[in-house]
Amino acid sequence: MELPTQTFRVTRADLVRYAGASGDFNPIHWSDRTATKVGLPGVIAHGMFTMALVGRAVTAWAGAPDAVVDFGVRFTRPVVVPDTDEGTEIEVSAVVKEVTEDGLTRLDVTATCLGEKVLSQARATVRMAR
Amino acid sequence: MSLDPSFVGRTYPPTAPYQVGREKIREFATAIGATDPAYHDPEAARALGHPDVIAPPTFPVVVTMAASRQIIEDPALGVDYSRVVHGDQRFAYTRPVAAGDELVCVNTIEEVTTRGGHGFLTTRTDVSTAAGEQVVAVWSKIVVRGEA
């Protein structure tokens, strides 16, 4: 079963707010000068910010804020966030792989930015709301 | 980038307790756009059976990232932090983190490999309350990029 795609807009302001809230002040997430110096096309989103957005999608599908039992991803491609009002967009979709006897649901998740996958092996196990 | 493989299996001493504040959870939830009342309103969280506001699923990284400095900054291991990129991340929950938790982290190095000139380091952080209740296990794999 496929779950409805959810779209998240990401701007530079979001990255600055996430840096402050998470304590991850790596300059590749706010300084083009630093990002390009280490060979990136420009400022990129924190991998953990992308994962947090996927977490929002997963809890929304599950229908409960405390649904997540297991959640893992591999970061495969950076999410470049241009310094524009629009920023960029991350699309998150998932398929239900399995519903176990003890009431847990296993999801395989896909996250893309500009049509390219940014995560692999993204999986979540959730307890769906009744 | 060559990391010392003899570090596999090493467990570090427990970190000082991290006090999970209600406002910190609200700040983190706001930063990721998570508006569910259980992340913001203690009454909404209590209605779901939690003692106070609960944290979104990736919140523990706030605690474990600080705790992992113990490993990253261990000069004997030899991680050059300026060359580090995040590889994998996983959370396996016993229960959600809630405001009021006092969390202690125990870091273990699970895997150290070198492939294609890059170093790979997998750590497991067992996050429990100061009283010893298991809350969440967190795995993180970092890649230390070689000098190309």
TrEMBL record, chain A:
Gene3D superfamilies: Hotdog Thioesterase. CDD domains: SAV4209_like. It comes from Micromonospora solifontis. InterPro entries: Fatty_acid_synthase, HotDog_dom_sf, MaoC-like_dom. Residues 6-94 form the MaoC-like domain. Pfam families: MaoC_dehydratas. Belongs to the enoyl-CoA hydratase/isomerase family. This is Dehydratase.
From TrEMBL, chain B:
Gene3D superfamilies: Hotdog Thioesterase. Residues 6-136 form the FAS1-like dehydratase domain. Pfam families: FAS1_DH_region. SUPFAM superfamilies: Thioesterase/thiol ester dehydrase-isomerase (SSF54637). It comes from the Bacteria. InterPro entries: FAS1-like_DH_region, HadA-like, HotDog_dom_sf. This is UPF0336 protein EFE23_09890. Belongs to the UPF0336 family.
